[in-house]
Design brief:
The protein is an alpha+beta fold. Helices cover 51% and strands 10% of the residues. Helix 15 (384-397) crosses helix 21 and helix 16 (423-449) runs antiparallel to helix 17.
């Protein structure tokens, strides 16, 4: 999940890194009533040869609670993480109090919070005066209330675990930073504190001299805060290591549907924190989008249909086998800053580790089922499936590029960060109309070039000019305005859909698509552009993340680093990529062969 706000804007409201990043469709309330759709009913009906009796499998009912859990673990996870972090903070305060330490200073007064909040808002307004503050906060934090709650918690977390003076740090903080980087981070923070306190002493001496002389001195100098980005990194390291010393259960570890998470601080089997699904769901009141609910139902149905197909075909791994494989992967990560979540959420952009866990078990079952058929003995030719897949894999991993221009007719109001009422239908109708105009102009232009008179119409434009004007007038990609001061980053900016030369993964990111979206939808607009669309032709409309897309490929370049099929490492990469891509088709075939229903 990525935020709709450009990275340069997000830096002005940097959050406590406490959960999954926002998905492209998160945070904005759907204009209308939220409908969970009732339980999702899935029955896989395998195709049978003509004349044979169909196989009737048992229907599986996925309750609404699983839809709620999918959303809580994913797009709206900050609500759950707030509860978990708050429990860690309160447990640390309780332990210190029980040990006889003074904890009276481990609070955030309303006055201190409001002053800090006002400062954050003032800095943002100064940097981005053209943006509406509450809209941008909602873009990054789902709602103003969530932002205020997380900001207050961030202040308390710092007071408890990362105060300015290292003499007040708990042992847990030192241990976490040492595990990550030895003494480097600890020394850097100490030296920074010493520099800032020395500077403060100098400033206060100058200030006091002016006061004593009766001169205008202004406010008394205060200690300058640590760099916010650096402190955020330290905060995340400490938080992630705190999670490791607590026994946490979620759906990934088999927690029952009515519960979302438990935390056992002393590992005695009795959790000190229990969060029910309904408690967490109530935190989401007023901010859930219908689009996210629809995606959740699609994902759950797809997972269940695939599971049923694998089980029917005798390919489904046991829960124990999947757990063993997951453990083997997670054990490779020694760093608190890099773990399974970086693969699931950061790399593949699944909404949560829990969702990735559901996918992983099925993908691993499928991968093992095709392992023998994709083996490549030393010196042997590639088997047919790999040979047919090589072109695609070469263009992705070999860093081929495409120069494409994309006209988005959006179902989403980016500037105001909300879904447009009946936006999908409106976007489709408009995109189809624009595509019809492209065809009419092309036909009229070809007639005029052949000498035929074009009656009853204005003179057609040459197709290149017509297309450029169409993008200028109708493309709905939105980029936030640049800051009034400071450095500007245009990373992720859409530039009216004129993307320039891009690798497949770069283009996929600009199109707000990911490996998760490929699994969810079965196809990407990105891949149509990158692999299949003829150069020079306008194509579409095709439904994507935010609306309907009309596209044009200007040119393509060949892979600069093609795979070497005589290199065992390259062959293994090819096999892995084939397994990922073919699994998507396998899963969507299962869904197509299933009877679906709700209530």
């Amino acid at each position: 999940m990525q935020s709709l706000l450009a990275p340069s804007v997000l830096c002005a409201l940097a959050p406590l890194a406490a959960g999954a990043p926002a998905s492209p469709s998160s945070g904005a309330v759907w204009s209308g009533d939220i409908d969970l759709g009732g339980p999702v009913r899935v029955r896989y009906a395998p195709p049978v040869p003509e004349g044979e009796q169909p196989v009737v499998l048992e229907e599986v009912v996925i309750p609404e609670g699983e839809v709620k859990r999918f959303l809580i673990y994913g797009t709206y996870r900050p609500a759950l993480e707030w509860r978990r972090i708050q429990a860690l903070i309160e447990d640390e305060i309780r332990l210190r109090s029980a040990a006889g330490s003074d904890v009276s200073h481990l609070t955030v007064s309303n006055e201190a919070f409001e002053a800090h909040y006002d400062k954050k808002i003032a800095e943002f307004i100064e940097k981005y005066p053209m943006l509406e503050v509450e809209t941008e906060i909602s873009r990054a934090y789902r709602s103003l209330d969530w932002y205020r709650r997380e900001l207050r918690q961030e202040m308390l977390f710092d007071a408890v675990f990362v105060p300015e003076d290292q003499a007040q740090w708990p042992d847990l903080t030192f241990e976490a930073l040492r595990q990550e980087a030895g003494e480097i981070l600890i020394d850097d923070f100490r030296k920074s504190f010493e520099r800032r306190t020395t500077y403060l002493a100098e400033q206060r001496a100058e200030w006091q001299a002016k006061v004593d002389a009766g001169e205008e001195a202004g406010d008394e100098p205060v200690l300058q805060p640590e760099d916010s980005m650096y402190r955020s990194i330290l905060r995340q390291i400490v938080r992630d290591n705190l999670y490791k010393v607590v026994d946490t259960q979620t759906a990934l570890t088999g927690l029952s549907e009515e519960l979302i998470a438990t935390m056992d601080f002393d590992w005695d089997g009795e959790p000190e924190l229990t969060v029910t699904t309904e408690q967490a769901w109530n935190d989401l009141a007023g901010i859930v989008s219908q689009q996210d609910i629809d995606d959740a139902r699609q994902f759950l149905a797809l997972i269940e249909a695939t599971r049923q197909r694998l089980e029917y075909e005798g390919k489904l791994l046991s829960a124990e086998e999947v757990a063993t494989e997951l453990e083997a992967i997670t054990s490779k990560f020694q760093s608190g800053m890099f773990d399974l979540g970086q693969i699931a959420i950061g790399g593949h952009q699944f909404p949560s580790v829990e969702a990735y866990g559901e996918y992983f078990g099925l993908h691993e079952s499928y991968r093992r089922s095709i392992d023998e058929s994709t083996q490549v003995p030393l010196g042997a030719q590639l088997p047919d499936p790999l040979r047919e897949h090589l072109h695609r894999a070469n263009h992705v991993m070999g860093l081929a590029k495409v120069d494409a221009e994309v006209l988005l007719v959006s179902a989403f109001d980016f500037e105001n960060y909300e879904w447009i009422e009946d936006g999908w239908n409106k976007a489709r109708a408009k995109a189809e109309r624009l595509m019809a105009e492209v065809r009419r102009n092309q036909e009229a232009y070809e007639k005029s070039q052949s000498g035929e008179a074009v009656e009853g119409e204005d003179a057609p434009l040459d197709p290149v000019t017509f297309w450029q004007l169409l993008i200028d007038d109708h493309c709905d990609f939105w980029d936030p305005p640049p800051p009034q001061h400071g450095r500007q980053s245009t990373v992720g900016y859409k530039q009216k859909g004129r993307f320039g030369e891009r690798t497949r993964n770069d283009l996929r990111s600009l199109m707000s698509e990911s490996a998760y979206h490929l699994f969810l939808r079965g196809a990407l607009v990105t891949d149509r552009i990158f692999f299949d669309q003829p150069v020079g032709e306008v194509d579409g409309p095709r439904k994507g993340s935010f609306g309907y897309y009309v596209t044009k490929v200007l040119r393509r370049s060949a892979p600069s680093r093609p795979l070497n099929t005589n290199d065992r490492r390259h062959v293994d990469l090819l096999r892995d990529d084939y397994a990922r891509v073919s699994f998507v088709a396998y899963a969507h075939e299962a869904l197509a062969d299933s009877a679906l229903g709700g209530e």
